[in-house]
Amino acid sequence: MTGPHVHLGVFQAGVGPQLVWAHPDAAPHTAIETFVQTAQLLERGLFDAFFLGEGLRVRENRGRVHELDVAGRPDAITQLAALAGATERIGLVATQNTTYNFPADLARRLASLDLLSDGRAGWNVVTTDNAWTGENFRHGGWLAHERRYERAEQFVEAAKALWSAWDADAVQDADAKSWARPGSIATVDRHTDLVDLTAVPTVPASRQGRPVLFQAGDSAGGRELAAKHADVVFSAHTRFDEARALAEDLTVRLARYGRDRESLRILPGAEIVLGETAAEAEEKARWVRGEQVTGRRALAFFEQYWGTDLSGYDPDGPLPDIEPSDAELDPSRGTISIDRRSGKLALIAQWRERADAGNLSIRDLALEVSPGHPAFVGTPAQVADEWARYVRARVVDGFNLLPYLIPGALTDVVDLLVPALQERGVYRTGYQGSTLREHLDLPEIR
Amino acid sequence: MSAARPRTLRTVTGVGTADTYDLAIDPTRGTLDTAVRVAKLAEEARIDAFFTADLLSFGAQGAIGSQEPLVFVSALSQVTSRIGLIATVSTTFHHPFNLARMFGTLDHVSNGRAAWNLVTSSVGEENFGPGGLPAPEDRYARAAEALDVVNALWDSWEPGALTAGPDGGAVLHPERVHPIDHTGRFFSVAGPLNIPPLPQRRPVQIQAGQSDAGRSLGARYAEIVFTSLPTLDVAQDFTRRIRAEAAQHGRRGGLPLIFSSFHATYGATEEEARRIVRERREALDFEKGRLQVADMLGGGVDLSELPLDAPLPESLLPDVASVHRRRGRVDIFSRYARQGYTLRELVIAAQDTGHWAVAGTPEQLADAVQERFRAGVLDVISLQGVGDPRLHDFVVNGLLHELRRRGIVADDYAGTTLRENLGLDLPDRTPVPT
Questions:
Q1: Hey, are the CB atoms on A179 and B26 less than 8 Å from each other?
Q2: pTM score, two decimals?
Q3: Do B62 and A104 touch (CB under 8 A)?
Q4: DSSP letters along A112-145, please?
Q5: Within a domain: residue B73?
Q6: Is there a domain that residue B430 lies in?
Q7: CATH class of A7-276+373-439
C-alpha cells in the first residue's frame, strides 16, 4: 500500500455496557459459531485483526453477580486458536495480562498461536493490580499498583528473548538427522527482580517473526512501555486534537528508544454508528445509547459509586438524596482508574452539581457520564471523509472498532463503510500480505 | 457408562510421538496442514479422540519440542466435528483458575469434545521461575487440590444460568451462579468461573503417571488413566490395584478406564514384522542407548563404561524413593535389571520406554488387543500411524477393521460429545458452599 491507509480491527471486549448483548438481534455471545461468523465477516471486509478482551472474574454489583453485564469471557488464546482453523488471513489478537501468567508459558502459548496461524497472532499486553481479581489467584497479596508496569516490562522482554532464541536457519530439512541444527537454539536466562527463568523455547518463529505487540495503557507507564516495545497502541483518544496530541507525545517517546513513528501503529478504540442519512444515524445512535443505559443499568452504575442499594429510586427521578459510603471504589465492574477509586466523593459532588444545573434525572446523568459514547456517527460517506482526514494527518493509523451489536453493527461497516473508504483510496482492495505484521505495514523483525 | 451399551474398546490417535512430532512443528511443511489431515483421517476412521502429548523442555534423548497442546487441538476444533480433542497440560505450572478457563474454552469451541490429560511435571521447571520442582508427594498433593478447584469452578454455574428470554435475548440468572470460596494449602480461589456452563459440564479427565502417588491420584479423580503396561501381568496387577483404590473412594466398578499405549510393529506377514523388528535392533546406536537406559533409571547413573552383554551391578540401581521424576518408568527398568537383563537388552527395551510393544500381522495384533480387552485390563487404546503413508492402511484397514469385525470396537460414534462417545457418566456436582 502506498500513502496513508486506514487499518481496522474489531475489539470484542466480552464485557461492559457498550455491547448490547441481550438484545434479540444479538447473536449468542458465547457461542463459537458467533465468533467464527464474525471473524469471517471481518475477513470479507479485509480487516487487519480480530481482537479479544480478557477478564479473570465475573463482574459484580453490590457483591453479587451483575446480571446486566455480559458474563462469559473465553480464554482468548484458546478461542483464537479455534478461529485460526476457520480463517485464513485475519490477524488474531489476544489480550493477556502479565500479572497472573508465567512468562515462559504465555510466550509459548502465543508462539504456538502465531505458528499455527502462519504469522497472524498478536498480544495485547495488559496489567492487573486489583485485589478483587487477585482473589481468584492468590492466598493474598498481589503486585503493587506502581510495580505492575515494571513486571510488564520485564515480562515482555523475557517473551521477546524467548521468541528470538531460535536462529533463522535452526529448522533443517525433513531428511536431516535431527530437525533442529545443533547449537541453533539458545537457552534464555532472565533473572530480574520480578521475572526469573531459564528456558529453551520449544516453538520456532512464525513467518512474521513473533506475535505483534499491542499496548493499551494510557498512563505514563503504559505509554513508555508502548514506546519501548509495542507495535500497536490501542488508545482511547478519538477526537482529532487529542489524537494528534497522543501521536506527538508517542513520537517523542519513540525517539528515546531509537524508533520512529513508522514503527508504530496507533489504533484507538472507537464505537461507530452508521445510517443512510445523517439524521438516521443520529437517531440510531440515540437508540444504541438508550439500550446501553437502561434505567436498571443507570441505577447499577451509580450503585457502584454510592456503594449502596439504590434499587428503590426511580431512574427517571432526581439523584439519590442519601450520601454515598466513603469506602474506596472496588473494580468489580471493570477497570477503573486510581483517581476514580479513591476520589469518588469529589466525582459524585461534581455529578450532583451537573444534575442540579441541568435538571437531569438519574438516567439522564448516566447517559452523559457513564462510559460508551459513539465516536463517529454519520453516513458512510461522512465517516469515510472524517477517517481519511485523520489518517492523512497521521494522527491515527486506523481504528479498533467497539461493536454495540454483533453482527449487525459490523455488517454495516463491511458492506457500507469499507467501499466508501476504498473509493477515497485509503483502504486496501485486497490483502497484500498474509501475516498480521504485513497487514499493519510494520517493518520486518530484524 | 450406560448399562444398556455393550462394553467396547475406545480408540485414540495423534501426532506427537517420536515418529511424527516433526510433522507438528516443522514450519516448512505448513503449520496446521499435517495435523488437520491426520485429524480428518482419524475422524473418517471413527477414532474416538485425537491426543497431543507435551514436553516442556528438550530431553536427554534428543531435541524434542512441540507447540502448546491446548492451543494446538483448539485449532483443530473448527476443521473437525466429531472427534474428541485431548490436550496434555501439567498442573505443576498453571494456576487452576487459568486451567479451568482454558479447558472450558476448548469445550465450548469444540461443542463438547474436550479432554484434559492431566500430568504433573517432572521436567521443565526451569521454564517457570523460582521454586524448583516440588517433591513428587507435593506435586500430587498440589495436583489433587488443583483438580478440586477446577471441578468446583466448572460446576459453579448451574444449568439454566444463561438462558434465552421470551423475546430471544439472552438472560443471566445470577442466583444460579455461585462463588466457590476455596481456601486450601496451595490455592485460594473465590470463583465463580467467568465462562458459562460447559457443553460437557466437565471435560473428560485423563491422568497419566503410574508411580504410587500418581496411581492414587488417578484412583481418586481420573475417569481414564493413561499408562505403560508392558505385559499382561503388569496390566492385571495395575488394574486390580487402581480399581481397588478407586472403590475405596466410593467410585463405581469399572472406573477409571484403563488407557494403554500400544507400540505396534505391523507386517503383511509374521515374517515381515519380525524382520522389521530385527532390522531396527541392528540399526540401534548402543552408545546413545547407554544414555537412554541411564535416563530410564532416573538419570543419576553412569553406564558409559559397562559391558553391553552383562547384567547391571545391583549397586547401580537407584532407590526408587530417592528419584523425583518419572518414578513409574524407573520402577519398570529397575525391575528388568534385577531380573538379569543385560545392558544390551535394556537398551532394546528402552526403545519402547516401558510401553506395550507387539509385532505381527494386523490379525495377530488384534489377538493381542483382544486378549487384554477380554481380560478387562484395556478400555482405551492408543493407535499410532494414522495418516502415516507407511502405516495408515495397516492401522485403519488392518487392525481397526479386524477389531470391528470381532465386535471389539464400535462401528460409529455413539453420541455427539466425547463423554457420550466414551460412555462416561458425569460425576456428581461439587456442592455449593454455604
A1: yes
A2: 0.90
A3: no
A4: HHHHHTTS-EEEEEE----HHHHTTT-SS----G
A5: yes
A6: no
A7: alpha beta
